[in-house]
Amino acid sequence: MTTRPGPRDRLLQAARDLTYTQGVHVGVDAILKQADVARRSLYQHFGGKDGLIVEVLRSTDPVARYRATMDAAGEEPRARVLAVFDELDRVTTSPDFHGCRFTAAELALADPGHPAHQEIRTAKWRLYELFAGELTRHGHPDPDTGANQLVVLVDGVLAQGVTRPEAHPALAARALAEMILDQDGRP
User: Fold this and answer.
1) Using CA atoms, how far apart are residues 134 and 36, in angstroms rounded to an integer?
2) Quick check: 170 and 85 in contact, CB under 8 A?
3) Tens-digit pLDDT profile for residues 21-60
4) What does the alpha-carbon distance between residue 184 and residue 150 come to, in Å, rounded to a whole number?
5) Helices (H), the chain
6) The dihedral of CA 22, 27, 28, 34: what is its sign?
7) Predicted structure pTM score
8) pLDDT tens across 95-127, in order?
9) Taking the mean position of all CA atoms in its chain, how far away is CA 169?
């Protein structure tokens, strides 16, 4: 017999699901209903909806998924980076794809002081660091610029994957990623 998760875990899972499919402005009542918890649990565990949103973002590690994809591709840095775009093609063409939860939250939360913004920026920074490390291992002449370019490509794929999945934006971005990887530092 399995044990039912506690209220905190149920709130996190409900918020994770609903904010992905409906956005961060999903109503508290919908989250409470799906989690099957009382409003008091929300405030007791997270201090309110803002705290819950922050914890959803903090506990969602998109970089782990990119790293796992890279690890499955082997040790060669070029293959590891390109594997990300192959995986993004698979993900963004899935009917369950609703975009990047981090970018969606960043755009939806108009208050610049919302505590979620720091979690979002941290996640994007960690992706940049992952790519910079791979480009350094690859011997890229400018890993910082190259990593920034790869993050822009990933963000573009995630946005286009929502509006034009049939165009396979990840495959178009993969070709651009190859150009970034092929830079040799010569003018």
Assistant:
1) 43
2) yes
3) 999 999 999 999 999 999 999 999 999 999 999 999 999 9
4) 16
5) 7-22, 28-35, 39-46, 49-59, 62-72, 77-92, 101-108, 116-138, 143-163, 169-181
6) negative
7) 0.91
8) 999 999 999 999 999 999 999 999 999 999 999
9) 16
